[in-house]
Write a structure and sequence with these properties.
Helices cover 76% and strands 0% of the residues. It is mainly α. The protein has one domain. The radius of gyration is 19 Å and the shape is globular.
Length: 190
């Protein structure tokens, strides 16, 4: 369910892109849409949970800046840079966490969901570094597609290609993690 909630603004942008008959205006309609939907997303999350998620806040700020510049200058490159900026912000957070605090960002995120998950510290660090490098890679791939393909192709790649790459990477990380998870010992009933 959370995935659908997080994916909502991107999906709305994708749908909005195909609404106008004037293809020149499509990216601007889509940009307005992601700006409004990102605001709705963060407001709804606040109303439901009385807190903000950092990922939503970062994305909202970047969407508002990139979207505002796209609309103001009538230049779609600003909104095309948004996924790269967001991914590189996440990469910076993952990499910086190697040097700040005792736990990596990935370890802190997982411990919020399951405080009993135990793995060797080097495994936590490897996974965390992998996420950082993956987000850097996604940022570069987004730029390559943005500058070398049509806006429609870029939007399809951003919506479906980047989502698929994220899911494939997540499955790979889960497979890697599974090998190292230490089972909690349960008392034997003799």
């Amino acid at each position: 369910m959370k995935f659908l909630f997080d994916f909502f603004p991107v999906l709305a942008m994708f749908i909005a892109f195909y609404i106008p008959e004037d293809r020149e205006q499509a990216i601007y309609v889509a940009t307005y849409t992601i700006m409004v939907c990102s605001f709705i997303q963060i407001t709804t999350y606040w109303l439901l949970y009385k807190k903000f998620e950092k990922m939503h806040l970062i994305t909202l700020v970047v969407v508002l800046i990139a979207g505002g510049l796209t609309i103001y200058f009538r230049n779609e490159l600003f909104i095309k840079w948004k996924p790269t900026v967001v991914n590189w912000c996440f990469a910076l957070a993952f990499i910086a966490s190697h040097f700040i605090g005792k736990k990596t960002l990935f370890q802190r995120m997982i411990n919020l969901a399951d405080n009993n998950l135990q793995m060797p510290q080097q495994v936590w660090r490897n996974i965390n570094a992998s996420w950082g490098l993956f987000f850097i890679f996604l940022g570069f791939v987004n730029l390559y597609v943005a500058y070398n393909f049509s806006t429609e192709f870029w939007l399809n790649f951003k919506t479906w290609g980047m989502t698929s790459l994220n899911l494939i990477f997540l499955v790979g990380i889960c497979i890697y993690m599974y090998r190292f998870i230490k089972e909690e010992e349960t008392p034997s009933q003799e």
